[in-house]
Amino acid sequence: MKTKNRKKAVFTFAATLLLIIAVFGLSLIKTGAYNRAKHRTVFAGEALFTDDNAQAYDVKATAIPRSSTWGKIFDFNDEGLTENNYQAYTYDITVSNNTRDEVEYFTFKLTFGREVFLSSAWNGALEIHQSVNKSQLVTTVPDLREFDPGEYALETFTVDGESFIDLKADDYLVYIPSSSTNAMEVPIEPYEGTTPGIILYVPMEEDIEGATLELEYTFHRLLTSEPLFWIALAGLGVWAIALVISAITSAQIRKYTERHERDNKIINESIETFTGFIDAKDPYTNGHSKRVAVYTRRIAREMGYTGEELDRIYYIALLHDCGKIGVPDNILGKPGRLTDEEFEVIKSHTVRGGEILSSFKSLENVAEGALYHHERYDGKGYPAGLAGQDIPLIARMICVADSYDAMNTNRVYRKRLTKDDILHEIEVNKGRQFDPEIADVMLELLRDNKIRMDD
């Protein structure tokens, strides 16, 4: 049982540790998958041009123009225009991280719903997609502030020596953030933001509210931000504490068990020594007490008793004849027939045994075995004439074991009986001397050779 419990504890701890490792591994997998995932959000209209409900998004992009603008004359047909017909808008495009995770990288695609003229941009490169003569030009400009139209295959328009990139409706640009030390736009720390900007020209009194911005981004989530990691860590802490407690408890239990076994050994040896004195008074029954104790324990085990209860039954049976210590040797060892008076003295050993063991409080019901083991199931026994279930169960067990040993032992007045004779005697005395159920248990033990005649 101890080995089984130890194996069960080891299995439980091992299985729990494997579960914790699995949860930790799952947290790694989830974190890795989360960091590899690309997220996309499209902003247009009010969602793009105001910062209302910004906290409703994990990552929010807004394009809010500055209040100060200025104008220029775009005289496409050399008509000699004298008044500004295009105005400039400086759009601060803010990308806000509203999570506790770092935004590792982002880009956005800004598609225009009308023709605009791109003047400048900063804090990143622009991948410009421009439609020209039903074909699309794609060019990446590292820094539009240093744009030289002669170096790029783009359609431009020059006013007052300044070059503008003509982007028609459905043309778009892709913003690529800078990661340089001087203009680091990525990564974006938790609850922080970055603000690249562009300058566009549109016709006077108009704007780019028809534009859409598609934001693509990835997160860098720390493992410590994954709830499963903390669940695994907490589980590991509880597991470690439980392991320490288990180790301490096991050591204490082992120490207690060793002391308990040592005490039991002392008790057993003390009782066996005492019963040895009793058996030594009668040379014809030497070893009788121990044999009866062994048989009684086998009967009890067959009836379903286990562990310490079996030990208790064994000790009670071992002491069943302790009252004989007070019977004179000349009567106990008399080779001839006993007189009625002498038989009464012999019978008194049950009462004497009960009295001797009455103060033995540490062994529950110990006196019952000595006092009642000569009671008969039919009520014709002694000393109290109890019958049936009124006789304590332990006494009924000892009665069968004691009678078997008597029949299987050479006495001064007869030889021991054969196995068939013993089986017959037990069978015919069921319900008379013996409890029928206990007698059947003993018969089965004998027939199956679980108790052997030469034991």
Rounded to the nearest angstrom, the radius of gyration is 51 Å
The helix count comes to: 12
Describe the sheet with the most strands: 8 strands, antiparallel
Which percent band covers the strand fraction?
A: 15-25%
Topology order in helix (H) and strand (E) letters:
HEHEEEEEEEEEEEEEHHHHHHHHHH
Tell me the structural class.
Answer: alpha+beta
User: Can you tell me the overall shape?
Assistant: rod-shaped
What percentage of residues falls in helices of 4 or more residues? 40-55%
Uncertain residue ranges? none
Rounded mean pLDDT is: 90
Cα-to-Cα separation, first versus last residue: 27 Å
Q: Quick one: how many beta strands?
A: 14
Account of the protein in words:
This protein is α+β, with helices and mostly antiparallel strands. The protein starts with a helix and ends in an 8-residue tail after the last helix. The protein has helices at residues 2-36, 46-49, 227-280, 288-302, 307-318, 329-332, 340-347, 349-357, 366-372, 393-407, 419-428, 436-447, and strands spanning 39-44, 59-65, 71-72, 86-97, 102-111, 116-122, 124-132, 135-141, 156-159, 162-167, 172-177, 193-194, 197-203, 212-220. The radius of gyration is 51 Å and the shape is rod-shaped. The strands form 2 sheets. Strands 2, 3, 4, 6, 9, 10, 12 and 13 form an 8-stranded antiparallel beta sheet that branches. It has a 6-stranded antiparallel beta sheet with strand order 1-14-5-11-7-8. Helix 4 crosses helix 10 (393-407), helix 5 (307-318) packs across helix 9 (366-372) and helix 11 runs antiparallel to helix 12. Strand 9 and strand 10 (162-167) form a beta hairpin.
